[in-house]
């Protein structure tokens, strides 16, 4: 730009245009060009000006550091003059000035500018008057700002405490929503449970917006007057906070506590961005409405439809229980913050402690988590490691009364993760031993006194598996020979005929699978009784082969263990009795949801971390989603696959799931009644003698009819008892007018489960204690040898009767307790079912013990 053009530009674009032509020419003659890159600090406040700057092109921003008063904040555009006042009056620089973009400037050194002022006094005269007027205006503005700050100070929010901590998709979405809410002046509703630091999110919105230099105030809606005079002011009187706030941000905390009279006014404010001062209708010629320039933020813990629908941005803050992936980052942040405040070294948190926190639902959300971390640090001064013990309150109801045996006994974890369990046991022993047993059942003598396989099946297997249910649940299924042959058949069929196995028809299987295994079990019971399977070896072998064939057939059709989960009659019985077990396999839901992305315990996959390569759960069960023991065979596939040590083998109160997380099913109740009826079925000769009927059980049809009656007896007794309960409840409601919701028969029937297990165990104790100890001579007799003189260990009949009686008595006691726990109703209300339990026990006593 040439010399004449400079003079014209100064005259038209700057405040120097008031000077004479000679003065302008003198100024234009000493101008020097400078280029300042973007984001460069041009001037430091409180420094001596080095000269006069004139902005030719670009954008500059000026402000005072650590000064919240917006009067100091200015934006400088082309034509702006910098340091004119300071050079004329000998002052220090008033603002720090930063280039927002690359800027072209003209510069006059301070010495040359002083020479110009001395040579042309009109420069000083022209601007002294202008600066005096600006000073008066600035003083008035400062007075207003001081009064404004005094009024707003009790409500000011000075900063955001922290950003959104975490890397989960919830945290990322929250950050995105906050960023969107900062882009305009639209109202924002932040909704969520207590303890989520929603006010901090509101502060993030304000201080991340273009209005961050304006004040932000917070009002608690529960303390507002019904008239709203604090907000809207009074006509003819003091202005309200909205007027003083100007273009700042108003945060209405706990909007759900807003007085009812104020709800329409706030709704109108959100809808029209205008408000009416209180009492305006009483003042003549008053303006009816005032425009609101502030941004409105609201915080709520419950919905308020008349307000919610008017907010432009709705941010729903997820509770901490669904953001388990962020707990690790939150804990690290809180520990760093607290340790810095206390001046101590930050400790590390153990994996087990973190898993305990992730397993907790945190009803108090972030506030509760911060409190737990602070207490843990206070409890462990000087420690370098925070263990799970210092987080003792972070425990869910599902974790109450549980002891993780894998932590208590590390050798148990090592064994269950080793190749021995259960693969080597199954393929090295069970596979061949089962074949030998079946062959002996077919080829050896056909009675229990001369066939050790028959003795093993009826006198050893049945008592031991029944005794094992309260301790190890469905453990037998992990080494069951039926599914070993099923798995081998599946692998061979895929090798011979490569194909994709069918996926499970889950909906149909859930609906009808239980009834299929119930029907199959009923047929097995009748076959066992009518054809004397207990003492007929080849028929027992046929029974074993029948179940094995089912496993093999369905394994060639469907993937994994479809037969084992839905159709196997032995598996159905095992799953039912496993509900009473004092052990359970579960996973920490918090850890699974926070850290796991592959679900290898469920789907299978390659080795990851300490997790081993597996094909996934054979029953398609996720350990974190298990509500009872029915669908877990304790194969430990999930334990081997999990890279996060989430899987637990817990010791717990026996059967606790039946009154906590259990879901009843009608087909399970039908199987339960069948198993109880099966005990009466096995004792038909005793019942026949006790009743004095003298029926000829060698004839098929009378035997069949008597068998069906025995199977139906428990159903009849329990239905009568339930009808009595419903009648009792109806009578009490009619008499007292206090409504009591009766439990369904399906729910209450699980109260009989200890009696069913005890009755079956009492029945098989006769074989277990009377014949199992003869296994050595029977083994020799199997091969035609004389076993006389070999050790025999059998109990005296009186001892057997005593143990049978004790078993029945305790089973009745546990059934009564369990019924009370399930129903959560008075003993008097449930007395008919308790009486039915005792009646069934008396009947069992008469045919088993006596």
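-> sequence recovered:
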């Amino acid at each position: 730009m040439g010399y004449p053009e400079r003079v014209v530009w100064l005259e038209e674009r700057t405040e120097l245009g008031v000077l004479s032509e000679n003065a302008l020419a003198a100024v234009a003659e000493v101008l020097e060009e400078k280029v300042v890159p973007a984001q460069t600090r041009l001037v430091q406040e409180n420094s001596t000006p080095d000269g006069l700057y004139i902005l030719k092109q670009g954008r500059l921003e000026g402000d005072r550091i650590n000064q919240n008063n917006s009067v100091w904040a200015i934006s400088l555009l082309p034509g702006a003059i910098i340091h004119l006042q300071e050079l004329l009056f000998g002052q220090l620089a008033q603002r720090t000035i930063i280039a927002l973009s690359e800027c072209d400037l003209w510069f006059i050194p301070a010495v040359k500018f002083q020479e110009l002022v001395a040579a042309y006094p009109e420069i000083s005269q022209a601007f002294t008057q202008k600066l005096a007027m600006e000073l008066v205006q600035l003083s008035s503005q400062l007075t207003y700002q001081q009064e404004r700050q005094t009024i707003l100070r009790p409500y000011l929010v000075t900063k955001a405490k922290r950003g959104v901590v975490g890397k989960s998709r919830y945290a990322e979405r929250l950050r995105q929503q906050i960023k969107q809410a900062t882009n305009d002046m639209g109202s924002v509703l932040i909704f969520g449970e207590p303890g989520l630091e929603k006010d901090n999110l509101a502060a993030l919105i304000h201080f991340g917006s273009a209005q961050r230099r304006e004040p932000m105030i917070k009002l608690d809606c529960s303390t507002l007057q019904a008239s709203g005079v604090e907000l809207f002011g009074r006509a003819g009187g003091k202005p309200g906070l909205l007027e003083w706030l100007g273009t700042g941000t108003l945060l209405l905390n706990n909007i759900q506590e807003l007085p009812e009279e104020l709800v329409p006014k706030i709704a109108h404010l959100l809808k029209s961005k205008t408000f009416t001062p209180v009492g305006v209708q009483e003042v003549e010629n008053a303006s009816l409405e005032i425009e609101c320039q502030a941004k409105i933020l609201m915080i709520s813990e419950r919905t308020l439809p008349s307000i919610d629908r008017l907010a432009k941005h709705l941010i729903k803050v997820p509770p901490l229980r669904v953001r388990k992936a962020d707990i690790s980052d939150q804990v690290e942040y809180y520990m760093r913050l607290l340790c810095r405040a206390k001046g101590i070294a930050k400790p590390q948190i153990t994996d087990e402690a973190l898993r305990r926190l992730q397993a907790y639902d945190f009803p108090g959300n972030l506030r509760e988590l911060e409190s737990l971390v602070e207490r843990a640090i206070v409890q462990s001064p000087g420690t370098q490691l925070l263990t799970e013990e210092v987080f003792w309150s972070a425990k869910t109801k599902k974790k109450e009364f549980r002891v993780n045996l894998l932590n208590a006994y590390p050798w148990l974890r090592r064994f269950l993760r080793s190749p021995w369990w259960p693969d080597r046991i199954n393929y090295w022993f069970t596979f061949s031993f089962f074949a030998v047993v079946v062959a002996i059942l077919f080829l050896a003598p056909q009675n229990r006194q001369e066939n050790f396989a028959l003795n093993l099946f009826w006198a050893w297997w049945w008592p031991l598996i029944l005794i094992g249910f309260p301790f190890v649940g469905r453990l037998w299924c992990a080494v069951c020979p039926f599914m070993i042959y099923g798995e081998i058949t599946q692998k061979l069929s895929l090798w011979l005929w490569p194909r994709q196995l069918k996926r499970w028809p889950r909906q149909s299987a859930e609906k009808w699978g239980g009834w299929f295994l119930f029907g199959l079990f009923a047929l097995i019971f009748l076959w066992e009784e009518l054809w004397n399977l207990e003492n007929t070896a080849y028929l027992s072998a046929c029974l074993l082969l029948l179940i094995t064939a089912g496993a093999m057939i369905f394994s060639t059709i469907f993937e994994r263990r479809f037969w084992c989960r839905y159709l196997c009659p032995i598996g159905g019985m095992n799953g039912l009795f496993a509900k009473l077990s004092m052990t359970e396999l579960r996973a920490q839901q918090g850890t699974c949801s926070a850290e796991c992305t592959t679900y290898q315990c469920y789907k299978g996959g390659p080795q990851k971390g300490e997790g081993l390569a597996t094909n996934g759960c054979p029953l398609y069960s996720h350990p974190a989603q298990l509500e009872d023991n029915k669908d877990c065979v304790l194969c430990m596939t999930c334990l081997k696959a999990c890279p996060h040590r989430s899987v637990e083998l817990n010791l717990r109160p026996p059967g606790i799931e039946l009154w906590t997380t259990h879901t009843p099913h009608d087909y399970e109740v039908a199987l339960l009644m069948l198993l109880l009826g099966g005990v009466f079925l096995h004792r038909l000769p005793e019942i026949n003698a006790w009743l004095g009927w003298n029926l000829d059980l060698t004839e098929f049809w009378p035997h069949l009819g008597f068998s069906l009656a025995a199977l139906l007896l428990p159903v009849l007794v329990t239905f009568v008892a339930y009808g009595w309960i419903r009648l009792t409840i109806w009578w009490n409601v009619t008499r007292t007018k206090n409504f009591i919701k009766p439990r369904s028969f399906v729910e209450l029937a699980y109260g009989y489960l200890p009696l069913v297990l005890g009755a079956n165990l009492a029945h098989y104790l006769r074989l277990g204690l009377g014949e199992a100890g003869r296994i050595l001579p029977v083994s020799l007799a199997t091969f035609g040898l004389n076993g006389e003189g070999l050790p025999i260990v059998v109990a005296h009949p009186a001892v057997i009767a005593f143990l049978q009686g004790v078993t029945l008595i305790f089973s009745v006691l546990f059934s009564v307790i369990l019924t009370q726990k399930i129903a959560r109703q008075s003993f008097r209300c449930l007395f008919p079912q308790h009486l039915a339990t005792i009646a069934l026990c008396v009947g069992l006593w008469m045919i088993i013990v006596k």
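The chain has a mean pLDDT of 88.
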